[in-house]
Amino acid sequence: MKRLIVGDIHGCHQELMDLLDQAGLSGDDEIIALGDLIDRGPDSPAVVDFYRCAPGARSLMGNHERKHVRISKGEIPASASQLLARQQFSAIGYAEAIAFFEGLPFFIDLPEATLVHGCLDPGKSLSDQRPETLLGTLSGESYLRRHYDAPWYELYAGEKPVVAGHHDYSKVGKPMVINDRVFLIDTGCCYGRALTGIILPDFQFLTVQSRRNYWGIAAAGPG
Fold first, then answer.
1. Nearest-angstrom CA–CA distance, 99 and 23
2. Which of 37, 57, 156, 200 makes a 20 to 30 Å CA pair with 87?
């Protein structure tokens, strides 16, 4: 069985379909997203529905899923990217999406690799990680900066490889591999760069070009 691990999709449903076409998976294979299914891109509902309903598909919770859960509880206000995604859903579809988000895990520990959306605290075991760190929230990243003098992915020394998303660290739509142990595969699809996946157990990269800078167009507004 193969597993296709997909970086941050952010509503870019067509690019997700392109990546699946390129991967050539069988019915027994898995399609695992690292989170941030939603916001910024043109079709968040279709991406969420795929991971809710497609056989073999599952997802981590990203910081953007967590934001929608917190917004639904009145804990934080919605930003522009959440408002954009909310407008794309029907009322029933959005309620179903929130219920789905609430059940997503903060990490997935596979035989070949550990999957997280955001970061890992290099000084703690997987079971002792703070949710904010795993999600890469502002407070989670601030915690890491206060406690370590280098980025977490440079300090990670665990035996099992880690695959993470959350930031396009390269800023040019290319995945990064750090010390052959950390695979960073958010490549900024919603910003017009690319959507990247990695096939396990062979750690084979697949990348499709984004059709346009969706978030740049949305943020600019009409005209």
1. 29
2. 57
Enter the CATH code of domain 3-220. 3.60.21.10
Domain locations in the chain as residue ranges:
3-220
Does the pLDDT value for residue 18 go beyond 60?
yes
pLDDT in tens, 185-214: 999 999 999 999 999 999 999 999 999 999
Q: Considering only CA atoms, which of 113, 90, 69 is closest in space to residue 203?
A: 113
Assess contact for 71 and 82: CB atoms under 8 A.
Answer: yes
- Cβ atoms of 18 and 208 closer than 8 Å: yes
pTM: 0.95
| Run of H or E including 114 | strand 114-116
| Radius of gyration (C-alpha) of the chain in whole angstroms | 16
Give the C-alpha separation, 162 to 169, whole Å. Answer: 15
Question: What are the Cα distances from residue 20, in Å, to 14, 60, 84, 108, 174?
Answer: 10, 18, 25, 21, 18
